[in-house]
Amino acid sequence: MSAVKVGVTGAAGQIGYSILPMICSGQMLGADTKIDLALLDIPQCEDALRGVAMEINDSAFPLLNSLKYGSDPREILRDLDIIIFLGGFPRKAGMERKELLQKNMNIFKEQGTALNEVGKPTTLCLVVANPANTNCLVLAHHAPNIPRKNFTAMTRLDHNRASFQIANRVGALTIDVKNVAIWGNHSSTQYPDVNHGTVRGGAIRPAVNDDEWLNGEFISCVQKRGAAIIAARKLSSAMSAAKAAVDHVRDWYLGTKDGEWVSMAVLSDGSYGIDTGLCYSFPCTCSNREWHIVQGLDINEFSRDKMNLTKQELTEERDEAFSA
Amino acid sequence: MFKILSRTFTQHMKEPVRVVVTGGSGQIAYSLLFRIASGSLLGEHQPVILQIYDLPHMQSALKGVVMEISDGAFPLVHEIIASDTPSTVYADADYAFLVGAKPRGPGMERGDLLKQNGEIFVKVGQDLDKFAKKTVKVLAVGNPVNTNALIAMSNAPSIPKENFTAMTRLDHNRALCQLATYLNTEVHNIEKLVIWGNHSPTMFPDLTYTTLHNQKIKTKIDHIWYEKEFIPTVQQRGTAIIAARKASSAASAASAAVDHVRDWALGSNGQWVSMAVPSDLYNGEYGIPIGLIFSYPIVCANGSYQLVKDLKIDEFQHNKLRITVNELLKEKEAVVDLIRK
Prior knowledge:
Chain A: Residues 155-322 form the Lactate/malate dehydrogenase C-terminal domain. The complex is a heterodimer. In chain A, strand 8 (181-183) and strand 9 (191-193) form a beta hairpin.
C-alpha cells in the first residue's frame, strides 16, 4: 500500500506540535498506513519548524515514510491527499474582528491560489485556523479546480466537548454518547443539539432529565469551553483540538460507523434551509471519502432559532470577508 | 482532588489498568497523557485509568489538562483521577511514569540538582512502596534520571528491583535517526544499536554490534564521523532542539517514554532496545558495578526484560563505559544518605 501524503500548515505552532505525533503514530489513518508528511509554516517560524521536524524524526515512528518542511506553499502543498490548515492569523489583544477576518483572508487566499495550482482534484482539506468556517470559504473560493465537497472546517472539537458534557452529566463514558450535532459556526453562536442523540442507546433528553440545563447551561458550557481551558491552563486547548482534527479526518477518510454521525462544517448544499455559499456545520455520515449531510431530522422552534442565529453570523462574516 | 468518573458500559474490553503520570501539568506529561489515552502504550483493546499527580499549586493547570483529556473523547480512557495526594494517585498503580522533577534553575550546581530531586524521589519511592501494586512497572523520566530511579527503587523495598527503570530510549531513538540519515536508510532497517550508561553527556551510543539489513556496519562507518560527529550530535541533541524551538523536546521525550514502557509490557519482538535498569540484576556483567541504574542492551518479552549477554567489549568501548560508570558513582555519592540500605 502506498503512503498517504499528509500536509499540515502552521505546523510550528501549538496544535501542530500536538497533532504531528498523533498522525505519525497511526491515530488518524490506522496502524497499517504509512505517511508522507509535509509541513508548512511562515519564514519567521523557520527555526521552530526545523525543531519540530527534528523531534518527529527523533521519535523514530515506524509509519513515517518521509518528512519535508518549508515555507513555500507551492512546494509543500503539492500533490497531497490530505491537508490540515492550522496556520492562521491569531487574534491579538484589541484587534477588531474585521481586521482579524482581513488578515486571515489574505493567508487563505494565498494558500488557496497555491493549492489550485499544485493540489490534486482528490485533495481533502480541513480548516482548523479561526475563523475556521470563513477561512474555509475563502480557501475554497481561490481553489476552483478542487471540488467544493473537498473543503471542510472543524467543529469536531465542539462535538467531542458536547459528548463529554452529556456523558459527565449521566455518569457514562464519552463513547457511549452518540449523534450529538453541532450546527453552524465554530464560534460562540454554535448550536450543540442533543435532540437526535443517544447515551447508552437511549435518547439523551430523557436520560439527562433536565431540559433547563440542556437548553441553557449545557449549550453555553460547550460554547465557552475553550475559554474555560485557557483560564485553567493559561494556554489554549491544543491537544484536544489536535485530537478533534485527527477524528474529523479519520472519519472522513475511513468512514463513519453504521448508525453514527459526526459534526463537520461543509459548504452547504441547501439542507435545512442553510444557503449554499456558507460553510456551515451539519451532522454528517462519511463513506468512500465523502461526507453526506444527515437528512430528515426534525428541527423544532428552539433549534431553528439557534440555527438561524449562527447562520446570520456566518452570513455577516462571509460578507465582510468578501467585501474588501 | 477531583475525579472524572465513568462507568464501563461495554463488556468486551479488558479490565482497565492504572497508569500514573507525575508532573502532570508539565510539557512532557501533556504530550505523554494524550499518547497513552490514544492506546499507543498498550494497544487499542486495553482501557486505562489515568492517575495524574502534580503539586498543590499546579492543580488548577492540571484541571485544564483533565478537561482536555475528557474533551478528547478517547474510548480507552475509563477514568481520570487528578490529585496532589499520593495515596490517591499511586493507588494500585500498574504503570508509573515519573516525569515530575525539579528542573535546573539558574546558578544551580549539579550537586544541588541531585539532592533536591533526590528528596523528591525518596518520597516517590516510599509512596510507590505503600500504595502501588507490587507488579508496578516504573519509568523515571525526570532528570537526573538514573539516580532518581535508584533513589526511588531503594526506598521501595517491597517492590522487586527490576521494576524500576530509567529512560535512555530518547537517546536511543535520536541515535537511530542520526545513523539512518548517515546511511541514507530508514530507522527500521537498523538493529542492535546500544546506549550504555547514564542519561547525560557521558552516555555512550555504541555502534559496535549495529546492523543495517542484518549486516554489521561498524567497518563501513567512518570512525572520525562516529567519534567527532555522531556521538556529540546524539549527546547534544536536546540542546539543539531547545535552540531551534526555544522549548525543550517534550514530544519526542514522551514518544520515547511510550516506546520504553510499551516494549517492556508487550515485548520488543526480538529487537534490542536501550533501557537503564538496576545493575544489581547482572552481577558485574560488562564490568558494570552493582548498585547503579545503568543503560544496557535489552530484549523484552513476556512482560519482562533480559540483558543481551556475552557481547565482546573492546578497549574503546571499555574506556567509554568507565567514564559513564564513574559519573554515576559520583552522582550516587552525592545522594548517598538518600539511598536506603
